Amino acid sequence: MSSHSPFRFGATVTHIESRATLQEQARRLEGEGWSTLLMRDHVGAPSMFAPLMSAAAATVDLRVGTLVANNGLHHPVRLAQEAATVDLLVDGRLELGLGAGWNRRESDLLGITHEASPQRVTRLHNSIATMKSAWAGDLRLPAADGTEGERAVLPGVQRPHIPLLIGGHGDAILALAAQEADIVGLNGLTVAGSTAKPTGVGYDAIADRVQFLRAHAGERMNVIELSTLALVTSIDGDTESTVRVVASGLQIAPTVVRDSPLVLVGSTSEVVDKLVAVREQLGISYIVVRDTAMHEMGPVVAELAGT
């Protein structure tokens, strides 16, 4: 997309106390101009789709989505079926985020073989092809007489299919995203075993990933929306102290922290200016934060959403 794509803002839900609190959170997001409420896909966390339907039931325009569904834990036909059903029930407001699945501990717990990264990305590629085929009606159940029978998955509301977000940092996953994603989530994370480390969060590293994506997407880059999930959000607080703590924790220079598109630290006006500059320079317009940062991000969303 162009560098002047309208800003959108999303919040990932980290904890659910009750239906009432989730729906109140959703209504607040919608009322403040946020675009999307998002659920993670981790063992030990709330499931993805039921909360999304609950949030959508309490709102009118708020979009809902996954950030991201672990492809290694879901059969693509079943995931396509679940997503299409949710898209129907939320009136076409679903965004389906997909990842190759990096957490070995979750695979081990569920008795699923945790493949090496290249194989996981290949599996994700195959899963996306299967899901798109299923939504298009090309995937059919065999009839009793061996002929082609009814479609395996009903379509969702959105056409040609539910918007797909693919998140990652490495060459293989971004090359796949360049060809298949509607939204690309740039997370700056590299994976070692069961740990995702933010080793690529600096401005230059993210700029390199955007350039890589452009080279592989070609003309598709004009229809791809670029997104980030903020690692740190601290607005109108003690900026210098926060920068020092983050720099120490990540073992990177404070200047790298200040410049990172994934770190939103400073006054409201400073964060607004930073996001505008990052959109102008890199084309990133869809900003996601954790729901714990909703309050402090409110003034930023109020100023930038839709502009």
TrEMBL record:
It comes from the Bacteria. GO terms for molecular function: alkanesulfonate monooxygenase activity. Pfam families: Bac_luciferase. The keyword Nuclease does not apply. Residues 5-205 form the Luciferase-like domain. InterPro entries: Lucif-like_OxRdtase_MSMEG_2516 (IPR019923), Luciferase-like_dom (IPR011251), Luciferase-like_sf (IPR036661), SsuD_RutA_monooxygenase (IPR050172). Keywords: Flavoprotein, FMN, Monooxygenase, Oxidoreductase. GO terms for biological process: alkanesulfonate catabolic process. SUPFAM superfamilies: Bacterial luciferase-like. The keyword Oxidoreductase applies. PANTHER family: ALKANESULFONATE MONOOXYGENASE, ALKANESULFONATE MONOOXYGENASE-RELATED. This is Putative F420-dependent oxidoreductase.
